[in-house]
Amino acid sequence: MDQIRVCGGKPLQGEIHISGAKNAALPLMAASLLTDETLTLTGVPHLADIATLANLLVQHGVEIGMNGEGAACDGRELALKASYIVNTTAPYDLVRKMRASALVLGPLVTRCGEARVSLPGGCAIGTRPLDLHIKGLQQLGAEIGLENGYIEARAPKGLVGAEIAFPFVSVGATENLMMAACLAQGETRLVNAAREPEVADLAKCLVAMGANIDGVGTDTIVVQGVSRLHGAHHHIIADRIETGTYAMAVGAAGGAVELIGASLELIGVVADTLRAAGLTLDATDRGLHVTCEPGALVGTDVMTEPYPGFPTDLQAQMMALMSVAQGASMVTETIFENRFMHVPELSRMGANINLHGASAMIRGVPRLTGAPVMATDLRASVSLVLAGLAASGETTIGRVYHLDRGYERLEEKLSACGGEVERIKAAR
Ligand code: UD1
Q: Is the entire prediction scored with pTM above 0.90?
């Protein structure tokens, strides 16, 4: 298995191109199942998760054309055409690799009147059930059974609009049900819907495909069902998690980097938090300029919350950054019950972190020291890269397949700015 080797202590200088958002690209790809015409997506990041979902869609019958393969920073173009759905089963082998595969459930059942989607099973950051997706589809009139580890959904006469009030915010359930509602009869109201920019990006694309959606970006989304959707072109928004991660890399290593294509608007609370922590962030005409002077980092508390709060997907990176800030900080995770797997690894590098239930108390140390560490999940793995940039000596990170799910050419992007980060290929 490949490893990432980081030699810390070198400030970052230069520019980094921010890719299209993975968490927008995946639901957008699933939306191609809603029409027999071509959905063209541009700015698609080159990531393992994109390939995993493409494999799933192909076995449902989607033809996928690809342009821009290679090192282009602005991502590739995918043309997805689901003329015929040849198979409505999403098998365990593919779904267990990536939970976002469950996003095919809503589109398949609303277009074909049936879907059989494997339950994803456990994952490193928590139990993450799909009960809100299932209840919502039942409210839209689907009959649902759970058989042999599969959700079996049936709506032979089509779905019918309804009011669905979520007991708490779920990004995936909002996306799945919004897609399902597009082809349902009548009006669907999604109350306490997720307001994440990636949900809004999906809604924008669905509207371009002929859907009738109101309230995008608010907590009440109203969909008037239409009888069919058509093809569209859609450009994917910038990845706000990648933006926040590289901004924090500048904090960890020091230096000055322009994040090309990044949007300050997309990272509101994150930008406020990073400024409070001692970084300088300024919008430029190409993106965002981030600087951090030596010794500027100060302990800053964060609590993860649904958007517009601080994202859970930046919690691990923030903890790495706070490990080398002056003073103490408290990081509280409210979205997932088990998203602290990076703590023992950061501790191996000299971080002073105490866990108390859903909160971690971090007492900043002047310097971390490099060590061999293990990636445990996608965002945890990049937190170790950040810690490696802040550390003296060499850090090697194992199980980097986690990193490859969500960060495109990370070692190239960082080393182009002077970071000593390289991939050590496993002997094959
Ligand atoms: C979540 C994050 C998203 C992040 C992604 C990957 C939130 C609100 N969601 O999205 O920002 O990009 O993980 O890390 O921050 N849940 C249920 N039943 C359901 C659906 C969800 O109990 O049917 C729970 C989950 O276990 C979790 C919470 O609700 O505790 C939010 O989950 P959800 O937003 O659906 O997860 P993702 O869509 O994966």
A: yes
